[in-house]
Write a structure and sequence with these properties.
The complex is a heterodimer. By secondary structure, chain A is an all-alpha fold. In chain A, 78% of the residues lie in helices and 0% in strands. Chain A is globular. Chain B is globular. In chain B, helix 2 packs parallel to helix 4 and helix 3 crosses helix 4. Chain B contains 7 helices and 10 strands. Helix content of chain B is 38%, strand content 25%. Classes of the chains: A mainly alpha, B alpha/beta. The interface between A and B is medium-sized, with 22 and 28 residues. Bound molecules: adenosine-5'-triphosphate and magnesium ion. Adenosine-5'-triphosphate binds next to strand 2 and helix 1 of chain B. Adenosine-5'-triphosphate (ATP) binds next to strand 2 and helix 1 of chain B.
């Protein structure tokens, strides 16, 4: 009976069970990895065993290189993401609710949204060089247009009745935008910023593909040349962990900023 | 009837459609609402009731005709015509108190005065103790109470209500009707109210206006001579039943007409 409930769609499961299942996945993954490597099924230059990755991490920390790479990547990601968000959020809100803005921007966004950012890298190098600006630009381009479209969707879904109601309460158009439209969009905007932050991390390696000398993406690519699978895996784990951390930070900010709306 | 508060004078409303002839929602509709009168409009679905209310609110402009409030032609929405919608239109990021204060804060009324007014109307709609709750935490009935308090706090010249209790269950709806009766009987606001619910119409109204199927016009006007103060015990009184029979008959005719014209359009 109990099992039938647990395996039914949309039923709550006990918190303990949830935690246990999560741990089980982690342990299974580790066990499989250990079995493949220590069991000699896969060569070490193909897949480094767990302890070597751990050692690579300790080595990196001792030499300070790991933190340098983390710092370089964080600067790139956060700058690109912040720049994109600052522009995309207000623009997206206006785009979703003002047909004039939509008409102006739609041709560009419609075109850009399907364009892989990597296709733009040659032009970016030509135009902004190979410094940190180019890397920030990659993150910016990768997130800006997606954010614009997602935020404009959020804004378009704000109920017309809510806007009309504000007018009948005496709001003028400026007040409708600042005091109704913007706050009404806030939860959707925060949710989408969180999602696009995740996407920004996925552009990191692409951003650091060219002429980088630091950053986690660079660290991974560099390790590939020497077949240092331990360092590659270390880079992957650190990116994954930082991604998880930023995601959690976004959850906290959302809870603090929007106490009136439960998260999805 | 004393002086007319609201005059709707031969208003026509046609919504243009791309590639087809426009939808005529209202055709030459005229009506008046007297000062402090409670007028309820009933009509078949899609006959243009909401459109009429949105016109009076100034949210849309008529294709022809005039709408006057206190003798002045209305020009866009304004706080002198408060509206309560069927859908939940509270601001989810504001507490009950701040929702009720919203109109006042738009006009820069000082905080102390805002709070005084909010407290008064929150008490009036029976929401003491919920001042700091967010709309998310309220039941449907409580949300509409807040919406009513918010509209009243603005002290509008006329209160426009578009099926405000339409989404509520029947018990809650009756409570809300009695609440509205009580508030109206001592505040004496001018009210233009729309509903699908015939009991609700007769219970609340000084006058019931029955609309025709689209394009909407006033088909018949019925003065409700039931004594006030009223409450839901009226629902079983013979005089009430007589009004109900009449309104039902009128609405049925229109429903049949609407159905027939829909079939003709569908068949064409
Ligand atoms: N913005 C609009 N554009 C085009 N047609 C519209 C618009 N608003 C309303 N209509 C049409 O006008 C007619 C009247 O609509 P309205 O919403 O006023 O009816 P209603 O009497 O309130 O209906 P209900 O009883 O379902 O609430 C309908 O046929 C509707 O499709
Ligand atoms: Mg309607």
């Amino acid at each position: 009976m109990e099992l039938r409930r647990i395996l039914a769609p949309k039923e709550e499961i006990p918190a303990g069970l949830r935690l246990a299942l999560g741990l089980l996945t982690g342990i299974s993954f580790l066990a499989l990895w250990s079995w493949l490597t220590y069991g000699g099924l896969v060569r070490a230059d193909f897949l480094a065993p767990p302890h070597e990755v751990l050692m690579a991490g300790i080595r990196g920390l001792e030499r300070g290189t790991l933190l340098r790479h983390v710092q370089a990547s964080l600067i790139v990601i956060l700058s690109g993401f912040a720049l994109a968000s600052i522009l995309a959020v207000p623009l997206g809100i206006l785009m979703g609710s003002f047909q004039v803005v939509a008409a102006v921007l739609e041709p560009i966004t419609g075109f850009m949204r399907y364009l892989p950012v990597s296709a733009l890298i040659p032009l970016l190098i030509l135009w902004v060089g190979i410094g940190i600006e180019e890397k920030i630009a990659v993150i910016f381009l990768g997130t800006f247009f997606q954010q614009l479209i997602l935020v404009s969707d959020v804004s378009a879904r704000v109920s017309k009745d809510l806007i009309d109601c504000s007018y009948t309460l005496g709001a003028n158009r400026r007040q409708v935008v600042t005091r109704v439209l913007f706050p009404a969009c806030l939860p959707g905007v925060m949710d989408n910023l969180r999602v696009t932050m995740g996407w920004a991390w996925t552009y990191l390696v692409v951003a650091e593909l060219v002429a980088a000398n630091s950053g986690l993406g660079y660290m991974i690519l560099n390790a590939m040349r020497g077949l240092f699978t331990d360092v590659i895996l270390l880079g992957i784990f650190v990116i994954g962990f930082l991604g998880l951390l930023t995601d959690q930070i976004f959850k906290w900010i959302r809870r603090w900023l929007i106490p009136w709306s439960p998260a999805f | 009837m004393t002086t007319a508060k609201l005059v709707v004078d031969r208003v026509r409303m046609a919504f243009p459609r791309r590639g087809k002839e426009p939808v005529v929602a209202l055709e030459e509709i005229s009506l008046t609402v007297a000062e402090e009168e409670f007028v309820v409009i009933v009509g078949p679905s899609g006959c243009g009731k909401s459109t009429l209310l949105r016109l009076v609110a100034g949210l849309v402009e008529p294709s022809a005709g005039r709408i006057l409030l206190d003798g002045r032609e209305i020009d866009g929405p304004s706080a002198d015509r408060g509206m309560v919608f069927q859908s939940y239109t509270l601001f989810p990021w504001l507490t009950v108190r701040r929702n009720v204060e919203f109109g006042l804060s738009l006009r820069g009324v000082a905080a102390a005065e805002r709070q005084r007014v909010a407290r008064r109307f929150i008490t009036e709609v029976g929401l003491e103790g919920f001042e700091d709750a967010y709309p998310e935490q309220l039941s449907g009935g409580m949300r509409q109470r807040t919406a009513l308090a918010r509209a009243l706090a603005n002290d509008p010249e006329i209160l426009l209500m578009d099926e405000p209790f339409g989404a509520l269950d029947s018990q809650t709806r009756q409570l809300m009707q009695e609440l509205l009766l009580r508030i109206w009987e001592h505040a004496h606001k001018t009210v233009l109210f729309i509903t699908h619910d015939i009991d609700e119409a007769i219970l609340l109204a000084d006058r019931v206006l029955v609309m025709t199927a689209r394009p909407g016009r006033i088909k018949k006007e019925l003065a409700i001579g039931l004594p006030r103060p009223r409450d839901i015990s009226l629902l079983t009184v013979p005089a009430f039943m007589a009004y109900k029979r009449e309104v039902l008959g009128l609405l049925h005719e229109e429903a049949v007409r609407a159905e027939r014209s829909r079939n003709e359009v569908g068949g064409a």
